[in-house]
Design goal:
It contains 8 helices and 12 strands. The protein is an alpha+beta fold. Strand 4 (about 65-75), helix 3 (about 85-95) and strand 5 (about 100-110) form a beta-alpha-beta unit. The site of coenzyme A has 19 residues, from strand 4, helix 3 and helix 4.
Length: about 270
Amino acid sequence: MSAEPEYRRARTDDYAHFVRLFRELGVDDPVPESELWIREMAGSTRFLESDGRVVAYVHFELLRTAGYVRHVVVDPLARRRGFGRAILRAVERELAAAGCVEWRLNVLSSNTVAIELYESLGLCAVHPTWILRFPWSSLERLERASPQVSSRRHDPAEDAAVERALSLAEGQLASFRQRSGQLLLRLDDARRPGVVAGFARFDPSYPGAFPFRLRDAGEVRALLEAMRAHARPGQSWVGLAVEQDEELARTLRAAGAELKLEITHMQGPLAR
Ligand SMILES: CC(C)(COP(=O)(O)OP(=O)(O)OC[C@H]1O[C@@H](n2cnc3c(N)ncnc32)[C@H](O)[C@@H]1OP(=O)(O)O)[C@@H](O)C(=O)NCCC(=O)NCCS
């Protein structure tokens, strides 16, 4: 009879397991290089072993009161044996023990297997997110932003106010800053002082922005122009994650953005 699977922290020599399982996520993202994995991901990655064999991994982000599950993968040869549920239950306990009260994740909307599993653990779909690919050559096709709208680097002293305004988990902005190469850009509108008119976390190496939020879809060009100033030479497009905002997705698609994926954002309380 098999012993209970073992939930354990990642070690640096687990990189090959990570690469093998990461490919099962079915996303376009390049596999993170080993140095980046060791520096920024291994510390919040756990593996599940059964009979001495790695059968699953989970990667999460620990925020102040929320845990963000970024990846969960079970080896294709070990599926439907309860390992997916087991590793999520284990991470749920770990997040709760660390003081989190809720968990969040994003899943491809077509991934009904994973959605069913998450629902059975108490997570609920909150909103859809459209992943668009916007060609920089389409910038001119968007309406010019109002002269009252300006862009600047986000000021960390405003983290809490911006997290509240954008319904981001507490500590999410500080967590973005810890990762290398991330730019936090904000729009202000002189007609509405203090209001966040737009916000993007832009990673020029990806290249993409998530979150990518506008208060008024008509001002999107201002946020894209602020990002463009940091885009790497030779990059012809940028990925944009548009959450819930159908008007913004429509505006971008009418200008030439291509829909790559639809994902569902889920949230739920952590069992105590
Ligand atoms: C999603 C995934 C992690 C599930 O792992 P798993 O070990 O097979 O899942 P479990 O055996 O623990 O099953 C848990 C529940 O998931 C659902 N489920 C799993 N496989 C299913 C299938 N083929 N069809 C329908 N439901 C399924 C069921 O609700 C199941 O509960 P049940 O056994 O009581 O019916 C796994 O399929 C996987 O790694 N997929 C590829 C990567 C991926 O999509 N990850 C999620 C990205 S956000």
